[in-house]
């Protein structure tokens, strides 16, 4: 299994794409979020993926830096189904608000001859807090991260052999996620900026973490591998070096601060 | 007056951004369309613009390669108004369908504490076929291009000294546009591909033109300067050269096939 980061930035970035990624296991793919628009399609292409292989998609929440690329995926899928250039089915998972908004946007934006495939061969599936589904053949549990901004879900995937991969979405860890995040083999967590630059970027006012905070948390939770994402982009050339340097002081496992398009073996 | 192309591609491109541009006259700016997402913000930055200077925006139609970037502009404007970091007002013009969809999307996606600025300091203004408005201090007439796909408007701007700039949107010229397009000093028209490659790209099935078609048309209409945009991106490195070579055989005026971020003095 591996993960390819299509984007690694927060909502406001212009020097990288917004946080979204592909999990890959053999010929199966799970796309998580879509970033802020059709640059998703460029990132998929640049990473060597065929967008048609993204048969399972999960959307964490409705913020435009996560949902807009998925609105484009709906267009691509439905249009190609209509043109006879897309075989089989695809499924988009999300909580009730996400699925409702995706449907409404598709109906507003796309012609009926395309949206007729929604519910037919493109399935928009509501998942609930604590619900288990099989994604890429792995047992996956969705959970509400209890955001106070917009309702948001993370997920915990059983990787096999007792390992689990947990995605906490784009907000700091909340105690309610403990049973999922604790002892994860892989933890995906946001880090808005360096703790050293908290006075510049004000992460706490924005309800975000620093590299230090996320690393301390991962240490406490007994995590083996930590991936930091959803960062600012003001010094993206040195981001990997500086965030890694800061985080390593507080986390004894393997710390990853990926660039856009970076692939990591899980 | 000048124009900066933020994007020059059709809906499906991944090697450039979707067609959208900024008209600039002194300190005044008109943004026309937004492309497919937040790459609009990157393109504005790369072109040297401050997104806050885009105080007038016109949206031609609801297709996602045109409207999504404008949904992002609404976010940026309303969020910054809320934070006290945006002075004054801004206006988005569009026909009834565009304005209705923009409002509905904003209300679905953004919090009430941001959308409350819509109608207050961010004006979403419906324009009708043949309606005149003053944009950037220039008399501008909006017109229905009579699209059979999605309702779409172009516009014709009085540049002063008898010159006019006419934008035909992203579909081939229709006779109903004659009084606007004829004798334009500047004509903006789509060219999906080369006529030489019509058998590869099937422009006519997609209701699009070739570089040859648009150039012949501009010649017939007595146009002085022709800008071609909304192209495919399969050979973008040689696009300018090849499209210009083909078009020049049929158009005796000045032909422009801009790259993304190219600025042209009008
Ligand atoms: Zn986000
Ligand atoms: Zn278009």
TrEMBL record, chains A, B:
GO MF terms, alphabetically ordered: 3'-tRNA processing endoribonuclease activity
Keyword Iron attributed: no
Pfam families: Anti-Pycsar_Apyc1 (PF23023)
Signal peptide: none
Superkingdom of origin organism: Bacteria
InterPro entries listed in its UniProt record: Metallo-B-lactamas, RibonucZ/Hydroxyglut_hydro
Residues forming coiled coils: none
Swiss-Prot/TrEMBL keywords: Hydrolase
Sequence ranges assigned to domain Metallo-beta-lactamase in this UniProt record: 17-230
Protein's UniProt keywords contain ATP-binding: no
Identification of the protein by name: MBL fold metallo-hydrolase
């Amino acid at each position: 299994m591996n993960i390819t980061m299509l984007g690694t930035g927060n909502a406001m970035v212009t020097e990288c794409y917004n946080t979204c990624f592909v999990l890959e296991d053999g010929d199966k793919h799970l796309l998580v979020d879509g970033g802020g628009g059709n640059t998703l399609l460029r990132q998929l292409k640049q990473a060597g993926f065929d967008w048609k292989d993204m048969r399972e998609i999960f959307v964490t929440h409705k913020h435009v830096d996560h949902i807009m690329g998925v609105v484009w995926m709906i267009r691509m899928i439905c249009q190609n189904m209509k043109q006879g250039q897309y075989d089989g089915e695809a499924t988009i998972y999300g909580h009730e608000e996400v699925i409702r908004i995706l449907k409404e946007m598709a109906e507003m934006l796309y012609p009926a001859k395309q949206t007729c495939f929604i519910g037919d061969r493109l399935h928009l599936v509501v998942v609930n807090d604590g619900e288990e589904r099989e994604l890429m053949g792995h047992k996956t549990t969705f959970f509400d991260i209890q955001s106070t901004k917009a309702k948001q879900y993370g997920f915990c995937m059983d990787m096999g052999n007792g390992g689990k991969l947990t995605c906490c979405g784009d907000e700091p860890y909340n105690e309610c996620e403990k049973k999922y995040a604790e002892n994860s083999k892989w933890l995906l967590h946001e880090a808005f900026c360096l703790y050293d630059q908290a006075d510049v970027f004000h992460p706490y006012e924005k309800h975000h973490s620093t590299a230090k905070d996320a690393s301390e948390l991962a240490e406490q939770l007994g995590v083996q591998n930590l991936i930091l994402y959803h960062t600012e982009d003001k010094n993206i050339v040195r981001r990997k070096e500086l965030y890694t340097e800061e985080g390593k002081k507080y986390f004894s496992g393997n710390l990853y601060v990926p660039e856009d398009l970076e692939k990591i073996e899980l």
